[in-house]
Design goal:
Layout lengths: L1 H23 L7 H25 L17
Helix pairs in contact: 1-2
Length: 73
């Protein structure tokens, strides 16, 4: 299940960047195509954020490295 969520995460963020770029570089910002690109970018952002939060849920923070060669000050 985690692999499927990771694939959804990658595809969602790819869609966000691709459709966001199309929406920002449109020659006629008031066109229907721009609106669709904005909606698809927003959908990519929401689903990518959801998948990222689902993947990172319950993951412990990494511990700092233990260096025993350094004298205590």
């Amino acid at each position: 299940m985690r692999k499927l969520t990771a694939i959804i995460n990658v595809i969602s963020w790819s869609g966000f960047w691709a459709f966001g770029y199309l929406a920002l570089t449109a020659e006629r910002p008031e066109s229907g195509q721009t609106l669709i690109a904005i909606l698809l970018a927003a959908l990519g952002m929401l689903s990518g954020s959801w998948a990222y939060m689902k993947l990172s849920k319950g993951q412990p923070l990494p511990e700092p490295p233990k260096n025993t060669n350094r004298p205590e000050a």
